[in-house]
Amino acid sequence: MRRVALVSIAGLLLVAVTGCGCAPEAATAKPLPGVATAAPTSIPTATPTPFPTDTPVPTGTAEPTHTPAPSDTPAPTFTPTPAATATPAVVLARIGDVTAARAGEEVTVEAEVVGAASFSAGFKFTLDDGTGQIALLMWHDVYDDCWDAPKINLGARVRATGEIGEFEGELQIAPSFGGDVKAVEGAAPWAAPRDIGSLSGSDAGQRVMIEGRVIRVEGSAGWAKIFVGDDTGEVVVFIWSNVLERIPGNTKLGVEGTRVRVVGTLEVYDYNLEVVPALPYDVVVLE
User: Fold this and answer.
1) Residue span of the structural domain in which 111 resides
2) How high is the pLDDT of residue 14?
3) What is the structure's pLDDT at 283?
4) Domain-embedded: residue 229
5) Mean pLDDT estimate for the chain
């Protein structure tokens, strides 16, 4: 019944719109005078959606290609090692041939150390090769950079390269860095220390070795006096600051009872005996 009612209502609406049951005659549009009639626009044709194609049946997997067996590795070709280049021989200058006219020239000498002293900016060694003598100047930075410094002392044989100079009529050779000075032979060790009580003014100017314990210390910015005693007596060890600063374990020198061994020149100052070490390694802290 509901379906019939819907159809009847639809029919009434159709009659109301058309005025009757017949289809209306299409009205022909008349063009306006003087106006060009546009060509009718064609209605685009819908492109049909393509149907999905069937998934192709997978083909069989091709059999793997066999990798050919590796061929034998060819034997390596040996390249001959080039012959080592010979190190050029060091040309040693005879100290006797070195003159002030060669000032500024760099030379290499090899000689024995026959003298040692300290000065405010470094250390000076007197070298003798049998043909003459020359002063080897090692400024503080050069001395501190020299690995062989502990071996360079009286009696040692050294090889030094440096620039020739002259000061107050004395010929000098000054290396530019520590590696320019090498100990060919180190200084021979001392046999035995002397009893402090055996030292006297008659020994002034001689190098002596003593061994004892620190009793007390005095000093200033430029020097230090260390009083050393053994069972036979007491003596002052006078050390300049540039030497003191480079003594291994120097802080123990300020401790009473520290045992030390000292090599130095015996001097007389204000009627008192003093042992004056020239180099840092002339003073050895034993404990």
Assistant:
1) 95-185
2) 38
3) 98
4) yes
5) 82
d(CA 258, CA 252): 7
- Identify the sign of the CA torsion 269, 125, 183, 279: positive
Same domain, 202 and 176: no
Residue 122: strand pairing partners: 119, 139
Question: Is the CB of residue 240 less than 8 Å from the CB of residue 187?
Answer: no
Q: What is the DSSP string of 112-146?
A: EEEEEEEETTEEEEEEE-SS-EEEEEEEHHHHHT-
153, 279 in Cβ contact below 8 A? yes
What does the CA dihedral 236, 237, 239, 245 come to, rounded to 10 degrees?
Answer: -120
Residue 173 has pLDDT above 80, yes or no: yes
Q: What is the enclosing helix (H) or strand (E) of 9?
A: helix 2-18
**Residue 127 maps to a domain:** yes
- Structural domains in the chain (count): 2
Q: What is the CATH number of the domain that holds 252?
A: 2.40.50.140
The predicted pLDDT at position 9 comes to 40
Tokens of 180: 């320019």
CA angle 210–136–188, rounded 5-degree value: 35
Reading the block at residue 199, the tokens are 């030292």
CA 44/CA 51 separation, integer angstroms: 21
Please state whether beta strands 223-230 and 207-219 pair in parallel, antiparallel, or not at all (unpaired).
antiparallel
Q: Is 224 part of any domain?
A: yes
Which segment of 26-30, 153-157, 188-192 scores lowest on mean pLDDT? 26-30
| Residue type for position 147 | W
pLDDT in tens, 237-274: 999 999 999 999 999 999 999 999 999 999 999 999 99
Note whether residue 249 is domain-resident: yes
| CA nearest to 123, candidates 246, 208, 207 | 246
Whether 134 and 202 share a structural domain: no
Share of the chain above pLDDT 70, in %: 69
